[in-house]
Design goal:
Elements lengths: L1 H28 L8 E5 L2 E5 L3 E6 L5 E5 L11 H12 L7 E2 L19 E2 L1 H10 L3 H12 L2 H14 L22 H12 L2 H7 L3 E5 L7 E5 L11 E9 L3 E9 L6 E7 L4 H15 L1 E6 L4 E7 L5 E6 L3 E5 L7 E5 L4 E3 L7 E9 L2 E10 L8 H15 L1
Parallel strand pairs: 13-17
Antiparallel strand pairs: 1-2, 3-4, 3-11, 5-6, 7-8, 9-10, 10-11, 12-15, 13-14, 14-19, 16-18, 18-19
Helix pairs in contact: 2-3, 2-4, 3-4, 4-5
Length: 398
C-alpha cells in the first residue's frame, strides 16, 4: 500500500514538474519570462536589463546616464541604417532629384520596399524607405547612387566613424545584413545617433510615422510606408530612431525622446535585447524623471581682470562657449566653478588673448573646460606706448 502511494506521489510530482517546465518554455517563447538580468542605475533607482549591450546617454551634452557592456563589439543588424542615412544626407547636396534605381539594388534579401530597376525616386524618398520600413533594397540603392558602388559607400561610412573618433565600429554592408566583420558597440552607436539627430533632415525622417512615396512601375502608383518603430507612440516626446533584427544580432533598438521645456534629449541603445521597446520606454522615462538640463554657463564665463603697467587698470575677459548639463536634484549643489585667472596681468594685452581657463566640476570631476580671452586690446604706459600715442595724434592732426 505504501509502495503504491509512493509511486502515485512520484507520478504526480513528475507530471507537475513536466507541466511547469513546459509552461516556462511556452511563456518564455511569448516573451513573458525573463533571463537572468543584469542591473543598471538611473538616477537613484536600479533597473534590470536583458540587453547584451546598453548605453543611455543625454545627446546634447554627451553625458552617460547608465550603461552595460557599452564597449562590447556586437552585431547591430539594421541599426546600421542610422549610419547609412546620415552619411547619405551629408554626401548628397541634392536630396530631391529623381534618380533611376540601379538593377543591383533590386531583390536584396530581407526587409524591402520592393524597388524595381529603372524606376525613379529621390534620395530623400529612399531615406524614408530606409528608416521607416528598413528597406535593405533602399540601403543598397542609396549606397550606389551616393558613391557609385556599395564598397565605395562603405568606405565613406567607415571614414565617417573614424572622423567621429570611434574605433570600435566597422561596417561591411549598408543594410546591416550579417557579416562577422560588421559590428559596433552601444557606446559608439549612441554617439553616432546623437550626432545624426542634430541634422534636421535625419531628425525629421526618423520621427515620421507614415509617409507616401512613388511606386512608378508598380501595380499601384504609390507606396504607403508605416514606421516599424512602435516606441514613437509609447513615450511623450519620442522622436526616433530605429529597429533592427537578425538571427545573429538578436533584437536591437535605438530610441530617443526629447523633453520640450528644457531640451533634455535621451538616447537609449539596446543591442540583443528581447524586450527592446519595453526596456527603452522604462529607461528613457526614468532618465526624463530623474534629470533636468541646467544652463551652467549661459553665454560663457565673464570676469574682470586687473592690469599693471597701463593707464587702464582693468578689463573684461570672457570664455566663448555656453554649457548646459543634465543633473539630478541632488547634483545641483555639487557643481563647482574654478578659473585659472591670475590676480593681475602686465600690459600690453592683445584683443582675444588667452588669459586663463574656466573649469566646471561635478563631484570633483571635470565636466567642462574652456579658454578665457580678453575682449579688447590693452596698451602699456611705457615710453614706446607714449611715443605711439604722440605719433597717432600727429597723424590725426595732418
Amino acid at each position: 500500500m505504501i509502495k503504491k502511494i509512493s509511486l502515485s506521489v512520484l507520478y504526480v510530482f513528475t507530471f507537475v514538474v513536466a507541466v511547469a517546465f513546459g509552461s516556462f518554455v511556452v511563456v518564455k517563447s511569448f516573451g513573458l519570462a525573463t533571463n537572468q538580468n543584469n542591473t543598471i542605475t538611473i538616477g537613484s533607482k536600479t533597473y534590470n536589463t536583458e540587453a547584451e549591450g546598453l548605453m543611455l546617454m543625454e545627446a546634447n551634452s554627451g553625458r552617460v546616464i547608465s550603461s552595460h557592456n557599452a564597449d562590447k563589439k556586437l552585431p547591430m543588424a539594421s541599426l546600421t541604417k542610422i549610419i547609412t542615412a546620415i552619411v547619405a544626407i551629408e554626401k548628397n547636396k541634392d536630396l530631391d532629384t529623381k534618380l533611376a534605381i540601379p538593377k543591383e539594388a533590386v531583390g536584396i534579401e530581407g526587409s524591402s520596399i520592393y524597388l524595381r530597376a529603372g524606376e525613379h525616386l529621390t534620395i530623400r524618398e529612399l531615406l524614408y524607405g530606409l528608416m521607416l520600413r528598413s528597406g535593405n533594397d533602399a540601403a543598397t540603392a542609396i549606397a550606389i547612387l551616393t558613391s557609385g558602388s556599395v564598397p565605395a559607400f562603405m568606405e565613406e561610412c567607415n571614414n565617417f566613424c573614424t572622423n567621429l573618433g570611434l574605433t570600435s565600429t566597422h561596417l561591411v554592408t549598408p543594410s546591416g545584413l550579417h557579416d562577422d566583420d560588421h559590428y559596433t558597440t552601444a557606446s559608439d552607436l549612441a554617439k553616432i545617433t546623437a550626432y545624426a539627430l542634430k541634422n534636421k533632415t535625419f531628425a525629421e525622417i526618423v520621427k515620421t510615422t507614415t509617409k507616401t512615396i512613388p511606386n512608378e512601375l508598380g501595380k499601384y502608383d504609390h507606396r504607403d510606408l508605416v514606421n516599424k518603430n512602435k516606441f514613437l507612440a509609447m513615450v511623450e516626446g519620442a522622436d526616433g530612431v530605429k529597429t533592427g533584427y537578425t538571427t545573429k544580432a538578436g533584437r536591437c533598438f535605438v530610441g530617443s525622446a526629447t523633453r520640450e521645456d528644457d531640451g533634455l534629449k535621451i538616447v537609449c541603445v539596446l543591442l540583443n535585447c528581447r524586450p527592446m521597446f519595453q526596456e527603452c520606454r522604462a529607461f528613457i522615462q526614468a532618465a526624463l524623471d530623474s534629470y533636468k538640463m541646467h544652463n551652467l554657463l549661459d553665454d560663457g564665463y565673464e570676469s574682470a581682470i586687473n592690469i599693471n603697467k597701463s593707464e587702464q587698470k582693468s578689463t573684461m575677459a570672457k570664455s566663448e562657449k555656453g554649457f548646459a548639463y543634465p543633473l539630478t536634484e541632488d547634483e545641483v549643489n555639487k557643481i563647482e566653478y574654478h578659473d585659472t585667472l591670475s590676480l593681475s596681468y602686465d600690459a600690453p594685452l592683445s584683443k582675444h588673448q588667452k588669459v586663463g581657463e574656466i573649469k566646471v566640476l561635478l563631484n570633483n570631476q571635470l565636466i567642462f573646460c574652456d579658454n578665457i580671452y580678453t575682449i579688447e586690446e590693452v596698451k602699456d604706459n611705457t615710453y614706446k606706448s607714449a611715443l605711439d600715442k604722440v605719433i597717432d595724434k600727429f597723424n590725426s592732426d595732418l
